[in-house]
């Protein structure tokens, strides 16, 4: 961009050097040609500034979109982390259940072994008695019965033998049932143990899935940050391009102003005195020239003009006779008009209503002509006219020219 600016300056110098002023008529002819050449360069600078502004708007739109996605992804990460914490707690509880079921299974195994031992012992006792019966035969039991000292003793001994055999059979049956219950209990414990183990495995798998998703989201955040960094760099470059294009535009406008001053030298350029008010009805001064706190950024800065707060669509008038050198969308001024009044004096009208510009670059205007309408374009918090007076391109207090 600086190389382009240099080319423009060299071109302008070449124009001035190749066409020296030699007489009033020749000067006007050469000046007009030089003005047209400078205006062409201005159009190129305006185009570059507009392109940079459009690209910056696109980059800002992409940046806002990525910021929204980043915010949504960060919220998703927080949800994932909360879910991971929840799964971790459930895993701990499930592990406790696994441990408890494992302990229960071990205890049931012990109980089963004990039940089996009792059944075997009782069975062996019963079988021992049965073997004794078969070995000694009926005589052994008869000996017990016939050894009774009385009939009552005989009955008692008979009942006792029957009771012993019956109790052994009942106890054996109970222990077999107990064993069956323990077997069922163990089978149920094994089933529940397998279920909680399976639940733990599922929780672990889900936790790994969530962790993978969390890592994926973190990578997305890193990608968004990289994209935002690239867009910030692009915006800085575009801002620099826009500023350089605007500086070139101002330089070219300055050259056009000087050429217009020379061309209008014999007519009626501004030679001093009070300027006309740019707005006439239903307005108030909302901000004067000088240091103030910026209403948008909140930072102190030098306010280069006077703000006239007025309803949207209020008429704006040329403060003095002159030639329009800028009439376009221009940076923070929004829709803007600059009028060259000759002798190095310019007036600037900013934040004009879109579609409200009534004059174009190159138009000649007279003091009091309607040139635009109040709006709120550019960096503006409400409808108002930002009015500047520039002397030799430097912003000065308009109050001294309006009083």
**Any idea what the radius of gyration is?**
51 Å
What portion of residues belong to β-strands? 5-15%
Structural class: alpha+beta
Strand and helix order: HHHEEEEEEEEEEEEH
Let me know the average pLDDT: 77
Q: What is the assembly state of the chains in this entry?
A: single chain
Largest sheet: 8 strands, antiparallel
Q: What is the count of helical runs? A: 4
Overall geometric form: rod-shaped
Strand segment count = 12
What is the straight-line distance between the termini? 42 Å
Low-confidence stretches: 1-27, 134-139
What level of helicity do the residues show?
55-70%
Written overview of the protein:
It is a single chain. The chain has 403 residues and is an alpha+beta fold. The protein has four helices and twelve strands, in the order αααββββββββββββα. The strands form three sheets. Strands 1, 4, 6, 7, 8, 9, 11 and 12 form an eight-stranded antiparallel β-sheet that branches. It has a two-stranded antiparallel ribbon with strand order 2-3. A hairpin with a 2-residue loop joins strand 11 (384-391) and strand 12. Helix 1 runs antiparallel to helix 2 (24-146), helix 1 (2-18) packs parallel to helix 3 (151-263) and helix 2 (24-146) runs antiparallel to helix 3. The protein starts with a helix and ends with a helix. Mean pLDDT is 77; it is low at 1-27 and 134-139.
């Amino acid at each position: 961009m600086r190389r382009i600016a240099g080319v423009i300056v060299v071109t302008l110098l070449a124009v001035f050097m190749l066409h020296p002023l030699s007489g009033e008529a020749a000067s006007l002819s050469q000046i007009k040609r030089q003005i047209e050449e400078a205006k062409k360069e201005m159009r190129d600078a305006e185009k570059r500034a507009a392109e940079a502004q459009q690209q910056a708007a696109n980059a800002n739109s992409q940046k806002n979109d990525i910021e929204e996605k980043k915010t949504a992804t960060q919220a998703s990460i927080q949800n994932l982390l909360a879910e991971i914490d929840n799964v971790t707690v459930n895993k701990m509880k499930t592990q406790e259940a696994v441990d408890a079921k494992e302990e229960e299974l071990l205890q049931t195994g012990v109980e089963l072994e004990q039940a089996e031992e009792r059944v075997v012992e009782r069975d062996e006792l019963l079988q021992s008695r049965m073997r004794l019966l078969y070995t000694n035969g009926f005589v052994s039991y008869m000996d017990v019965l016939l050894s009774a000292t009385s009939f009552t003793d005989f009955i008692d001994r008979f009942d006792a033998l029957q009771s012993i055999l019956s109790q052994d059979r009942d106890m054996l049956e109970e222990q077999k049932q107990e064993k069956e219950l323990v077997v069922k209990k163990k089978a149920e414990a094994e089933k529940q143990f397998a279920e909680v183990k399976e639940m733990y495995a599922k929780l672990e798998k889900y936790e790994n899935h969530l962790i993978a998703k969390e890592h994926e989201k973190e990578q997305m955040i890193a990608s968004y940050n990289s994209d935002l960094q690239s867009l910030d760099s692009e915006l800085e470059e575009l801002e620099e391009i826009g500023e350089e294009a605007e500086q070139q535009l101002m330089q070219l406008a300055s050259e056009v102003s000087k050429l217009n001053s020379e061309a209008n030298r014999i007519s009626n350029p501004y030679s001093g005195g009070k300027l006309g008010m740019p707005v006439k009805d239903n307005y108030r001064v909302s901000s004067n020239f000088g240091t103030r706190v910026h209403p948008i950024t909140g930072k102190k800065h030098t306010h280069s003009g006077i703000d006239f707060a007025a309803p949207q669509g209020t008429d704006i008038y040329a403060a003095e006779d002159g030639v329009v050198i800028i009439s376009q969308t221009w940076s923070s001024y929004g829709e803007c008009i600059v009028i060259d009044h000759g002798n190095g004096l310019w007036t600037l009208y900013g934040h004009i209503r879109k579609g409200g510009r009534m004059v174009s670059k190159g138009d000649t205007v007279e003091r009091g002509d309607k040139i635009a309408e109040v709006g709120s374009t550019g960096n503006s918090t409400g409808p108002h006219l930002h009015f500047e007076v520039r002397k030799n391109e430097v912003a000065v207090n308009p109050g001294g020219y309006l009083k």
